[in-house]
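pasting input
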Amino acid sequence: MTTIESGAQLAIRVHGVTKSFLGTRALDDIDFEVARGEVHGLVGKNGAGKSTFMKILSGAQPPDSGEIVVGGKAFKALDPAEGRAAGIAIVYQNPELHLDLSVAANIFLGAEPRKAFGVLDDGAMQKRARELLARLGLNLPVNKRLGDLDIADRQQVAIAKAVREEAHVLLLDEPTAALNKAQADFLFRLIRDLAKQGMAIVYVSHHLDEVLDISDRITILRNGRKVAVVDGKTSDKDSLISMIVGRTLDAVELHRTERSTGEAFFILDNVSQEGRLAEVSLTVRAGEIVGLTGLIGGGANALAAVMGGLDDRQLSGQMQLAGAAYAPASVRDAVARGVLFIPEDMRGRGLVMSLSIAKNISLAALRSIAKLGWLSLRKEHEVATEMSERLDLNPRAPSREVRFLSGGNQRKALLGRAIFANGKLFVLEEPTQGVDVESQRQIHDHLRRLAGGGASVVFVSTDLEELIALADRIIVMREGRIDRELSPAGLDPERLLAAIQTPSTASVN
Amino acid sequence: GKTIAFMRGGPDPYYQYGMNAVQSAADKLGVKVITYTANNDPTQELANVQDAITKGVDGILIYAVSLSSEKAAIAQAKRAGVPIFFQYGYDPSILADTAGIMEINLFTFGEPVGEAIGKMVPEGEYATITGKLGRGDAEAFAQSFKNGMAASGSKAVDVADLGADWDRQKALDAASQIITAHPNLKAIYAANDDMAVGVSIAIDRAGKTGQILLGGDNGAPYGVDLIKQGKMTMTNGNPPSIASVYSLRLLLGVIDGSVKPGQFYAAPTQLTSKDNVADVIPWDAKPANVDQWLKDPLPQGSAPPTPPSK
Amino acid sequence: MTSPAATAAQPTLRRPNFVMALGVGRFTLLIVLLLIVAVTAIGNPRFLTAHNLLNILFQVSTLGIVAAGQTILLIAGGLDLSVGAALSVAGLATALVVVATGSVVLSALTGAGVGLVIGALTGMLVATNRATPFIITLGTMTFLQGVAILMSGGSPINGTDALFNLFGMGDFLHVPWPVYVMLLAIVAVFLVLRFTPLGRYAFAIGGNEEAARLSGIPVRRTKIAFYALNGLFVGVAGVILTGILDSGLPSMGTGYELRAIAAVVIGGTPLIGGRGTVIGTLGGVLLLGLVSNSMNLLGVGANFQSAVLGLIITAAVLLQKKA
Amino acid sequence: MTSPAATAAQPTLRRPNFVMALGVGRFTLLIVLLLIVAVTAIGNPRFLTAHNLLNILFQVSTLGIVAAGQTILLIAGGLDLSVGAALSVAGLATALVVVATGSVVLSALTGAGVGLVIGALTGMLVATNRATPFIITLGTMTFLQGVAILMSGGSPINGTDALFNLFGMGDFLHVPWPVYVMLLAIVAVFLVLRFTPLGRYAFAIGGNEEAARLSGIPVRRTKIAFYALNGLFVGVAGVILTGILDSGLPSMGTGYELRAIAAVVIGGTPLIGGRGTVIGTLGGVLLLGLVSNSMNLLGVGANFQSAVLGLIITAAVLLQKKA
Ligand SMILES: Nc1ncnc2c1ncn2[C@@H]1O[C@H](COP(=O)(O)OP(=O)(O)OP(=O)(O)O)[C@@H](O)[C@H]1O
Ligand SMILES: Nc1ncnc2c1ncn2[C@@H]1O[C@H](COP(=O)(O)OP(=O)(O)OP(=O)(O)O)[C@@H](O)[C@H]1O
Ligand SMILES: [Mg+2]
Ligand SMILES: [Mg+2]
């Protein structure tokens, strides 16, 4: 049944919410309701309107029209304080946190424990933060500066902050995007507990298996419209996909076309880095796609950083690119050698938000749109339009500033930059994080096409399905070493996860 | 009636008092005055002259930020046939093209103060605090005071020369530090009375009132107060009030042809000490003063001062 | 369990925070201070006399008060270039009232009140507009300078002996009153920043304003409060300076804005906000005071002072790294 | 400091972007300009004469040149407070050389060269240190002011007629030479920003420095290039101002830094960088020139000018929204 049975009480009801940006309809007359204790999945393509909807529910943005009924009160629009007061907590797709404040201070920001005369009680704050994190099974140092944690840990802090608010309604916008499987599984257990305790949870994700697995009901958005509400227990992935995309896609995960990989193109010989990498030797052939993975701190990202020329401190060992020695002193050196690095933190380190899609795409290869050192804006527009087509960017507006794009489309635009710079070695972190099913396949196809064209691709991923679907070889890193190498052929996520979590010395079955 | 542009280099009281005097004199003469300020920016000053010409004034009376940067202004004024009269500052290369220049002799202005103090301080240490450096006048004031000290036959030695940008607080700080560095200092010269006020506060704070003599320049009201209180020995006054009224009359004379343009005039000065503090020429001109200055015989052109050959 | 991604990939972020964590930032400043002290003490024995040290404190007192207020603003990602002009306006108001009434209390309250009001209005402009505080307060600075000229009629306002006797000459246990006021201001700001939600919000807003908003912090109101508080400090400085100079001058605050900001940044508070300490600011204020004092005690010629001061400020800032 | 995400999220932030997108931002400035023109034209018929309009262009020419250079810096997320002092130093160098050699070419090259070198050195300090340009250049500003005083030896440097005849008096088709130079500077910056990789790098570095670095942009070198270029513009302005004033003065650049920045920001370039146009800057420069010209033609008294100017700057900035 896709309606709430009469018995259950509503936690939140939304009626006729509409929202437009610069003429584009982000949300169109959405009705939506979640019962107490219900886990409600929300899915849709990149740009379908999920985050906008979440922001409206949390009070971060006002709707153009419609009403929100929560805690017995009806609102035309909420502001963050009202939303919180009404018992709505949210974890944003791009967690809004304070890098210079401690973990505890972040968790309790705006609701600091106080002594007499409104004096801050940091002691109590840290104590309660420790208890909370323990309850969530997270072992994070409460006094550590948040900026010194990695994105996954920051995501956890954001979740802890939301839970701390003891809301009736918890909105999670792609909370697992930056988490590895283990962390994600843990989050699901947490979500179930919270739901049992009567909390209503709205769960946005592109990982449809997760969504089906955890949701009681699932709402599908397409181009800002609600196309259906289905039962999480009874519906299956294919039907979900077809509703999301608007047509049927073959559910076959693996698009692997057999590519003939050429000779050795990129060689790491016994590369070590103080406290990060130890004796890494690896050969990537032309036309090959290598997946790097491992636990956080395992060294996958460190290896990517070294390849990309981001970090050459205390580096030892040899690297070779296309037969010549490779020792980039700066990112520029790497780019000059055709090595393109795409960071996971795309907003912080990837895109220039104040520039248009076109200008972001051309940024790493301005030479190719320049004649005698003068940029041809016409050419730039053309190549950007062509790239938007290839990547199925939405909206198709090369002159639109990227900060107005949805998360997934931003990631595509970033990939577009590397493709346009037509590198010989692509080093990507989490290439499809936050990207919808269809786009994910498109991106994978692009990467395969690049490889097919003779380029080498090395990507870091914590997404098991992605590793199996995309990589020709999977390298598992542990404590800075290559722990083992797996062939994706016949590999299933569970075995891969086991391989990631248990040292190769221990037996895997 | 005629319209005169009065321009001042900046917000300093010195210009303000001159402006007030010109204002009331002009009222009596039925002349309209438009005031301009350059905020110590020579570019703005040139702009002001151009705009005044555009506005169609009959003459320009100006306290320049820096006379040496007035050539363009003068050329423009000349081209437009608008006489331009300068107060404060002197540059031989422009005199001929001006309606006139009224100025004190920078190179000797501090001398009488130096001599007076030199007589009271036959030996020991003294220091000078001068104004904003780089325009020449601040440097000249300090030097002329030292010359006066020497001329008086005093054996006193100059132990510190600091700049305080004509600013009271900076002068206060500088003076206290000089006093700390030189405990048996006998005298301090401040190149204007604004700074003299700061210096006198420093002397009071050091508990050396009376032990350290103070000499100033300008004869500003607050300088005169110091003299009345016996905190300053002497100040050489160059009241902007009377000077501005005279200059206005000279400018109007040039406009109606009764005064020959291009002459130099010695600005009225007045040594002030406790003996004659009663009949000091006020900066803050009363109507009676203005009437008097309007009746006074016009100053006659004289030979411009010559800089001492270094 | 920090992943390499967080460390290796963001070297530009990591080191300075590490530095801050160890407080080495503040130590470098301390070292610079001690260096200057040592050099001067050798060059002139009178430098280290209680009398001279008190003099230095007296000389920086008003700057210290203004810088203390500015510290909160910078931590909160704000800035106020109009403090110098506001100081003049507050000082003139103080002078006018004390001349009219002869009452220290009344005039002091007026000066502080004027500062508070100016600060609050500035805060409203800044908090309700997208323009950066730098440029907004550049405009209000010019405006307030004009107001100061109009208030004073362009000439000094004298007859403020009552204030002069208190702040210009008065002391307690040989320590001039303005010094106490400065220390009070520093301590007050320290307590606010360290122990009150308002202080915590300053760090939050300066670090990530949007995140602060989404955490339900009343960003606008808080910002206005910061600017008002800063204005109050400026007003108090105006009252005291009127006493020290025994007059109200339209130019009395000239240059305070840049000196105050320099002191705060030299003290280790970055202009981008999000972190900082008022103790560091005190260090910055002392540095500026020490340098001019030491140059004068060492007899550095007038023509050289600006160049030397510039070198030392630049050096201090560069040592400060993440300013 | 607002994160990019913020822009997408905060509703109050949304409208201005929309406004910018439609370029209305520039229109508001245009409207302000036209308003002032209208009022003044009514108040004084002489205002709209070709002669007066040329005067205005002549009066803002040096400011326009400095502001053009500063535009690049602000777009790239930089800032240079030392331009005023650097202008004085360059101007004095020009004067010294022309007095010594009498050669316009030699002196002009010297002035421009001095500016270029100062700019390059400033750029190295800024690019290789974590301290913000604001505070670094505050230090170098003080230093350069000192250098200027030392160069001038305490009095104006005269005998620069050769330059005076060219820039102070010379014109071509009734348009003074400095005006051509300013327009040249504006056009040059326009072309660089719009049609060269270097210009694109400015937007990229100002918008997201780390992203620029990961795109293989030589961040440090590029920054240094921007400051050097800005320095060159400042040097040229110094040469011209020496001609206009027919002398080198240690105070000739006083206040240029704040006026230039104000003009750029009024012109719609936000201090946080990442966007902006030099055409807008020209508008900002004209606004400042117009206001003072219009106040003078309407006979606004000296004591009122600062207050009025402040009001108008503030208004213009607030209208500019995203500054
Ligand atoms: N601030 C904004 N200004 C203009 N357009 C916006 C803004 N925020 C979102 N949009 C547009 O609204 C639409 C919905 O965006 P939203 O972020 O809600 O999509 P989404 O479903 O969350 O996508 P994703 O799965 O990639 O996160 C997109 O077309 C996006 O470009
Ligand atoms: N591995 C690293 N460790 C610490 N800082 C780094 C590292 N790599 C780059 N940086 C810093 O990032 C900024 C950009 O450095 P990058 O390596 O890109 O040099 P660049 O931008 O090419 O500049 P240039 O070519 O002028 O040296 C510089 O401030 C540099 O100090
Ligand atoms: Mg989203
Ligand atoms: Mg990762």
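fyi The pocket of adenosine-5'-triphosphate (ligand 2) is lined by residues A 311-313, 330-332; C 11-12; D 213, 218-221 (CB under 6 Å).
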